[in-house]
Amino acid sequence: MSGSGSRSVDVVTILWERATLIPLAQRTIVQATVIGSAAPCANTLAPGDSYRAALRCLLGNRFVQVLNLDFGRTGVAVFIRLF
Fold first, then answer.
1. Contact 59/69 with Cβ under 8 angstroms?
2. Using CA atoms, how far apart are residues 7 and 21, in angstroms rounded to an integer?
3. Using the 8-state DSSP alphabet, how is residue 20 labeled?
4. Which of 3, 9, 23, 57 reaches 20 to 30 Å from 29, CA-CA?
5. What confidence score (pLDDT) does residue 83 get?
6. Please, which domain of life does this record's source organism belong to (predicted)?
7. What predicted TM-score, i.e. pTM, was given to this entire model?
């Protein structure tokens, strides 16, 4: 988007995995991509970090989860934040 009146959008995509097929098993981040900024949550998005901690941080900082695909052992989540 361009122009002085445009709104800024931050997008975070997280690929996560579970160690087992147990539905409530802890999920860990495999890869995260950021378009814009993930501040102040960027330090929670490294491979191996807890998905739950990243989720809490993002939701607590005006991100909205717009997609959550759960394939059992792996999944994808997408978050956006509008300004």
1. no
2. 40
3. S
4. 9
5. 82
6. Bacteria
7. 0.87
Residues 8, 56, 64, 4, Cα dihedral to 10°? -10
50 secondary structure, DSSP code? B
E strands, 23-63, where? 27-35
Establish whether the linkage from the previous residue to 40 is cis, with ω within 30° of 0: yes
Alpha helices per DSSP H over the chain = 51-59
Show Cβ contacts of residue 61 under 8 Å, excluding neighbours closer than 6 positions: 39, 40, 41, 81
63 by Cβ neighbours in 10 Å (0-12 / 13-18 / 19+) ranks as: buried
What is the topology classification, in CATH, of domain 9-82? Gtp Cyclohydrolase I Feedback Regulatory Protein; Chain: K (3.30.1410)
